[in-house]
Write a structure and sequence with these properties.
The structure is a homodimer of 172-residue chains.
Chain A lengths: L32 H22 L10 H9 L3 E2 H8 L3 H13 L3 E5 L7 E5 L1 H5 L1 H15 L5 H21 L2
Antiparallel strand pairs in A: 1-3, 2-3
Helix pairs in contact in A: 1-6, 2-3, 3-4
Chain A binds a DNA duplex (30 and 30 nucleotides) through α1 and α4.
DNA sequence: ACAATATAATACTTATACGTAATATATGTA
DNA sequence: TACATATATTACGTATAAGTATTATATTGT
């Protein structure tokens, strides 16, 4: 794409001093882990969004996927449970559920035993769209990851899991 | 983390029919490419943000990095040029530059030869923070990608570049 | 020269996710 | 029982990025 990079010289220059600020002029974005990760996430999100629209389920946004799949497995989960399952903060989950409620996919139902808690329940519409949504998901990911070997996919998964663990440890 | 996954069964089940909707109950998030990519991006972003704050350059947000590094290489680029270099839409770049201007990192300067264009220029402050910002970047990425082999990093880069190309072709 | 088209930047709306704080309710302990 | 603490959810502000439409200029073709 272009000629700049704002990342991770350390992996490409051996013997560099830890805090040495490297000369940037010789790097390209396609060498930058952070750039590549964020762009890949964005293009997949964008492809999913287009896929849902083309399939006539434009009410479904990519961000809803985690919640939908969780609820298709077990309806009536609580907000915190959904947040934990999707890897989001509870406060993020609230806004997500607001949008999903607005779009007619779920509703909130009070817990008679714990008046703090709300159970998140799929509407009929939320149940009906399961098949087309999963089809779009499968098709989109097949398209985006086409011509990539299974062994490489496995390395990606392994490395990204390690990244998540490194970050988790770093934040403690 | 948890027991759900909303992704990409296709790579793990051989011989699956293209549009077959798979049974979800047996998958885990840590097997999901889309999940892993988006989480990894978010944890790195979060680590960078914390790094900037700890280093006393809390005016710098992770999203500013692409623009800053571009301008440190060549000051006075135009909005569209910066957008293209960072891989963003020009409309996204406008908002980003608004925040950077508000935070005292850049200012806009009209082009006398093309009255449509604005040149984006670093303030003194925007120039001064180069060293600490690059230090935080280097340190953070070293930390997040620690214990990951160079060969694996290279595979990640290769695969993600292919993903970006696949998505680009798919959108035409 | 003028009309059609292209380019640069922006405004506005929406989606996504974090962090902090507030509120209500439960639970555990002295 | 009363108080401290923990839990569930939400409210509000901010960062990030896309998409659509608009405005102002430039450029090109006739």
């Amino acid at each position: 794409m272009v000629n700049i990079s704002w990342i991770s010289i350390s992996y490409r220059v051996t013997g560099i001093k830890y805090y040495m600020v490297p000369d940037l002029d010789q790097f390209s974005v396609t060498d930058c882990h952070y750039y590549l990760l964020s762009r890949a996430t964005l293009v997949i999100t964008s492809a999913l969004k287009k896929g849902f629209t083309d399939a006539g389920v434009e009410k479904v946004k990519p961000g809803y996927l985690g919640v939908l799949v969780s609820l298709w497995q077990k309806d009536g989960l609580k907000t915190v449970e959904l947040a934990r399952m999707a890897g989001l903060e509870p406060s993020s989950m609230t806004g997500l559920l607001d949008r999903m409620e607005r779009d007619g996919l779920i509703y909130r139902s009070s817990d008679p035993h714990d008046r703090r808690a709300q159970h998140i329940v799929l509407t009929d519409f939320g149940k009906e769209i399961k098949k087309p949504v999963l089809e779009v998901l499968d098709k989109t990911l097949k398209s985006v990851f086409q011509d990539i070997e299974e062994s490489e996919i496995n390395i990606i998964k392994k490395v990204l899991n390690k990244v998540l663990n490194n970050a988790k440890r770093g934040s403690n």
